[in-house]
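ok so for the tutorial part 2 we go from a plain amino acid sequence to predicted structure tokens. step 1 is just haveing the sequence, like this:
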Amino acid sequence: MFQSQSLPNDANAVNADQKTISAITASTGPNLEPIDITDKEQQIKNKKQERFNNNVNRLSKRITLYQAASTIPSFVIELNYGIKYINQCPIQPLINVFLIVHGCSSLVNGILLLSGFIMAKHIIKSGGPSPCVRRLFVASLIGQLIYLVFSFAWLVAGQVWVFGAQVNGFQSSNSTQTATYCSSNVFWTGFVIIIITYAVWLLIILVIAVRYIIKRHKMKEGTVPTANQL
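step 2 — the prediction. this is what the tokens look like for a chain of 230 residues:
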């Protein structure tokens, strides 16, 4: 009799425990914080906007005009010698092609820089870009990136052609020796363009590296607590 009467009591205890667990789950369930996806999306948008603003500030500086203007002499000289002496470098006719294409690509880069400067100034004055201006500005940045990649690849090709001609016995004194002849105007123009371009790129890399080191040093100094803060 004692065992048969204890079974309903045990069942009631189990039901009570289940109700307690359900009540706890119901009370704590709504308080669980969901993953906030909107905050992450907003952070991504903020980073994109920050990069956009940095590019606007960079291209709005007067040095951009100087960079655009510097492409004009290169375009004129290379196009002039490349076309004028088109058949006067039989040892390596592609040196003429190198000068013509490199000069035209430099002019294209100058146009991209000038357009970027104009749009950056417009964005700053207007307080914010319209969708059309924003697309044009981003297209200018993409064009500059494409030019940078193409310019490097084309410079390597020109280096192979120019220095290859030098290794193969380049001479500019006897035009009848077509196997080794190349006009000095063509060869030395290509040679100087390659050396100057590498020097400019090396200088830019050094400036960027120095600025990065200085920035990192300042950030570290800002995170170190002073004696008053300790």
